[in-house]
């Protein structure tokens, strides 16, 4: 499901790869000392390589990844698109699968007959 708080992740991946190339380093090296954000970037890059422009991510998650790499979203995304995503940043779509556990509590006498 898409929300207006999501942006295309491919632009950030391209910007991080370009920044790493300018620095003469690997993309993962930009996240030195930030293992959580490095893992999030690795997942983002993998999904972008699988889905391309179809892969979207919440603007707050993109912001954290960009900041960890030393980049600003303002330099990567269109100002209007970014403003709209930030305006709807608190919106979330629940994709969880809800289930119910049913337990039968039978007396011992009923289970032995």
> How many alpha or pi helices?
5
| SS strand fraction | 5-15%
Give the rounded overall mean pLDDT.
88
Helix content: 40-55%
Counted up, domains total 1
Query: Helices and strands: which structural class?
Result: mainly alpha
Oligomer: single chain
Order of secondary-structure elements: EHHEHHH
Question: Reading side by side through the largest sheet, how are the strands ordered?
Answer: 1-2
Structural notes for this entry:
The chain has 113 residues and is mainly alpha-helical. It has one domain (6-87). The protein has 5 helices and 2 strands. It has helices at residues 10-23, 35-51, 59-68, 79-87, 108-111; strands spanning 6-8, 56-58. A two-stranded antiparallel ribbon has the order 1-2. The longest helix has 17 residues, at 35-51. The mean pLDDT is 88.
